[in-house]
Amino acid sequence: MLAAPHAHAKPVISDFTLENGMRAVVIEDHRAPVVTHMVWYRVGSADEPPGKTGIAHYLEHLMFKGTDKIAPGEFSKTIAANGGQDNAFTSRDYTAYFQRIAKDRLGLVMSMEADRMRNVNIRQEDIVAERDVVIEERNMRTDNDPGGRFREQYMAALYLNHAYGIPVIGWREEIMSLDRDDALEMYERFYAPNNAILIVAGDVTPDEVKALAEEHYGPIESVDLPESVRATEPPHLAARRLTMRDARVSQERIWRGYLAPSYVTDGDTAAALGLLSDILSGGTTRRLPKMLTLETDIALYAGAYYSGMARDLGEFAFYAAPKGDTTLPQLEGALDWMIEDLLENGVTQEELDRARKAAIASEIYAQDSQSSLARQYGAALTIGLEIDDVTNWRDRLEAVTVEDVLAAARAVLVPERSVTGYLMKAEKEGTDG
Amino acid sequence: MRTLAFAVLGGLAACLAIPPATAQDNASRIEEVVSPGGITAWLVREPSIPIVTVQIQFDGGARVDEPGKEGAVNLAASMIDEGAGDMDNQDFSAALEDISSSIGFGASRDSFSVSVSSLSENIAPTMDLLRIAMTETRFEDRNIERIREQVLSSLRSKKNKPQSVAGDRWYAEVFGDASYAKSVSGTIETVTALTRDDLLAAWDRMIAKERMKIGVVGDIDAETLATLLDDTFATLAQGEALDKSPVPVRETGGLVVVEEDVPQSAVVFGHKGILRDDPDYIPAYVMNYVLGGGGLTSRLTDEVREKNGLAYSVYSYLYPLDRAGLYMGGVGSANARVAQSLELIHQEWARMAEEGLTEEELEAAKKYLTGAFALRFDSNAKIASFLVGAQASDLSIDYIDTRNGLVEDVTLEEVNRVAKRVLQPDNLFVVVVGKPEGMKSADTLLEGIDG
To answer: Which member of A48, A212, B126, B382 has the lowest number of beta carbons within 10 Å of its beta carbon?
Structure first.
């Protein structure tokens, strides 16, 4: 058995909860005199009302348009004038706002973020211009790229009923009709201290952060949060297949995804699936690259991933691009053969040990970036995990056996739960693909 | 789904501005380590996490590709982890994995870079693997063919990425015959024709002790590092310094439209800029922050995005290559609206050249640039990048202490003189990829881009 790395310094993590219900996590990193300050709201695209796709993300943009105290555009200007950087992002389960700045400005950024938690003031004239900005964002990320549009179709097929099938940025036709009232309704319902998580990483002590948080976030009153109205996913009974052809595709590819549990719904299976994805594709010595790109030489690249940092559901997926004369069905056949072999024979102890060792080492390397540590804890807490789930993740990895990996693979890699997608070049006249 | 795109800033590692008061702590911690064999590295000791990051950069990169062999340096760089000594690529990967280390590499227009991450307990065997990879590279035919196919596939895919098409076309038009005209990964034709001998020849031109810069950050002391430097790099060829004389840059403006059936036109624009060692570099850097470098706070973003909703991302940046200074920018707007975006960009370019900054803008820029400097030093990996970037730009080891003073010293008169000197609104060369409306189409070159 391979020895795990001896080095095992853990990040110094502490936490507290304000009386109004706002959770806070402090990640100490005293290497440089800077802090990363983040506020995460438990609301994302999966919480949008029907017909309003994209409203969570659009609201994130509008949050930079000023409050009763801050004029439009002044939020980021004030941060910049203090030598800081700010930004925000929206996902399926959360929306987060952050600043990176010198540590002595932590109180300033907290006062500004606390202000826009309840006092946003969106002018009608900013509404239309910002909606156009979102459309251009969608053009850039998705509509200009056949791969981006294919990915949307694939996700929509993977989830039969759950809102994870909807693109975070929203469907274009629905974005066009979003308005100020839609944004404010989302804001009023979900932007509150008892629906928020504060993460501060950097050159600070827990006592300093607590005092500042009590001063700035403490006075904000909690609200009655709405019951979660998310759709549930029914049993999957039929394998689904998609083919998308586009003249702008030059490299064809195949995608095969399976509905899976998440870190929240089944942590043990999630740990096994994370290790399985490494066994299959974490480097050129692993099964998929080794078999498909080196030994049989039928793929340009091939891999697998597990995506489980989500509140309700996860995804386990395979992808590959054919090489030379190989066709997509031939490549799919090779993938199927490897999946069948996995389900029949499982993985070896050596494979598991190598994957586990790589996972443990990556946790040590991850400590180099306070921003990514902050994101890791922010995402985990927002979706419903606890601090210990993250900090003691290594224990969970250590406990996974080859039997666990086989059981997880057999539970998840079921044809009825799958979507197989082909992204292909445009069909030439008179030929058959 | 960020509100802003910061992609451009990431590419500017070499033209760093340096730290505020707070960075002094870091500054005094940079040690110059010279090995007994005469190899120099800049070191920042950081014992709080048990890891070591080593960044190595060789000046040269794709610009040492010979005419007709473009892409050779890029392909040769990819062979570094494809087998060396008595290890094939599987053995080599497994050896790295056994000690939880990683070695990354990449070629750019001016350099070939190698990044090493190791747990501190394994730094010696990691550097030994690096030595073998760099001195006993196998260049096996089957691996060359495999990587070649990957590069060709990505070159074919690039043809369908509007932003990439715009960038490649811009460099081709602006540099004419100079090696900078070609993309780092070459063309389908040149990459198809490369032989094993071409890669070996490229390798010999890429790797030279004379042109090597090393930055090390982490849990390692100077003495241990000095020994490792000799053990790892002593046998590399000395090589020679490269010609850094300027190459010609297109002097006149123009417009090229490349038709692509996409909803959003991708635009790359720019003209000749200044070199990193130009005395006006810092004032120009401050000016650009106000024009298009400052994310949501810049003039370009204010006009194009905030007031008119014409784009998600619009930006400008100074790009000082070794042999040519460039001043570039980009925007993406719906086909029906891209002409309006370009009109506003041209207008702001001209207004800045004409009127310069206001006193308030200069103060805000100084506050941001000096304050945000420390943010470039909040991880070992970022510090290591700075250490090699500073050496490659011939900055002194105390630059980290002096840089904020240089920014503070910029006067309104100076920055506005530099704005007038550097910005050439009528010489902007623009490439639009998409189906823009209200512009001439199909590869016609026009004079200027007004209206």
So the answer is: B382
- Residues A291 and A306: their CA atoms lie apart, in Å, by 20
Number of domains in chain B: 2
Residues 108-167, chain B: which have Cβ within 8 Å of A?
117, 119-121, 146, 149-150, 153, 156-157, 159-162
Residues in chain B with CB shorter than 8 Å from the CB of A367 are: 49, 51
Dihedral through CA B17, CA B21, CA B27, CA B29, nearest 10? -150
Residues constituting chain B: 451
Tell me which residue of A102, A96, A79 sits closest to A202, measured CA to CA.
Answer: A102
Distance from CA of A235 to the nearest CA of B (A): 31
What would the two tokens of residue A294 be?
């080196």
Q: Do residues B279 and B423 share a domain?
A: yes
**Looking at domain A240-425, which CATH architecture does it have?**
2-Layer Sandwich (3.30)
Residue A388: count other Cβ atoms within 10 Å of its Cβ. Answer: 10
For residue B155, what are its two tokens?
């070159």
* B301/B312 Cα distance (integer angstroms): 9
What is the C-alpha to C-alpha distance for residues B270 and B383, in angstroms, rounded to an integer? 30
Return d(Cα A266, Cα A359) in angstroms, integer.
19
Reported as a pLDDT band with limits 50, 70 and 90, residue B176 is very high
- CA pair distance B214, B43, nearest whole angstrom: 9
Divide the 433 residues of chain A into consecutive groups of 10 and give the mean pLDDT of each group. Answer: 54 96 97 96 96 98 95 94 96 98 97 97 92 97 96 98 98 97 96 98 97 98 89 96 96 97 97 98 94 96 97 98 97 98 98 96 93 96 96 93 98 98 84 42
Window B:372-401, CB contacts with A under 8 Å: 372-375, 377-381
pTM of the model: 0.93
The arrangement of secondary structure in A12-216, i.e. its CATH architecture, is 2-Layer Sandwich (3.30)
Residues 6+ apart with CB under 8 A from A177: none
Q: Is B119–A361 a contact, with Cβ atoms under 8 angstroms apart?
A: yes
Catalytic residue among A48, A60, A113, A315: A60
Question: What ipTM score was computed for the predicted complex, to two decimals?
Answer: 0.93
Same domain, B275 and B386: yes
State which residues form the domain around B198: 21-233
Q: Are residues B141 and B270 in the same domain?
A: no
